[in-house]
């Protein structure tokens, strides 16, 4: 093997460990899950018998799956919209590097490093119907307790706000990076031409932040579709099934109902939805 050939193999050697890990822990399980969804097996019988697309046909008439899908779509839409707006607003607030903004950045980012279980427990302590701090304060001041976790509408609002609070700091950092890539002379030229702050924001900041906004939207969408721990701890999918999302439904189908092959079919549907949404978001951004 000559020197040129050995030199050409060096990049592949560097990416080989990551490629191997990706194949073993992501690609192979994904392919196995896709194949498993075509059988009627479980944890005791293994693959079982080949049934083709029967599981996918059953999903069309599965009221629990459809309800979880609708809940997920509502949740994702609300969370992504709030995350994009709030993270951009925070990034604009703390863009300049000063002592005060540095402290604010740390404060806004702290929820990101907390475990989702910790976030769920903390919010449950604050908004619990009986022992919650917020209801205790309301009662002490002559108010009436609010059924945060037992009312459908309040529960949906609460899980949305908890999720947004836990992830906004991360996307704020991405927006700060995007804002720092915009040349300052562009703003100076616009200011000299008499552009107002609002005009500079809509005509300069927003268009030049399209790549960062696309990245934030895609990542936030994926993370919202994968939401599980916060909601499980906070509401357990209740009241009723009003806050039960797809991931929780998949988990319960696989382990509580001992039907992992049917759960695999639901996972494949979730993967297809994510792929389609990511493709659509990318195409729309390219056209813009």
TrEMBL record:
Keyword Electron transport listed: no
Gene3D superfamilies: MetI-like (1.10.3720.10)
Domain ABC transmembrane type-1: 69-281
UniProt keyword annotations, A-Z: Cell membrane, Membrane, Transmembrane, Transmembrane helix, Transport
Mode of membrane association: Multi-pass membrane protein
Residues spanning the membrane: 12-32, 73-94, 106-126, 157-180, 201-225, 261-280
Pfam family name, one: BPD_transp_1
Subcellular location field: Cell membrane
SUPFAM superfamilies per UniProt: MetI-like
Signal peptide per UniProt: none
Similarity comment text for this entry: Belongs to the binding-protein-dependent transport system permease family.
The protein's name: Carbohydrate ABC transporter permease
Organism (species): Deinococcus taklimakanensis
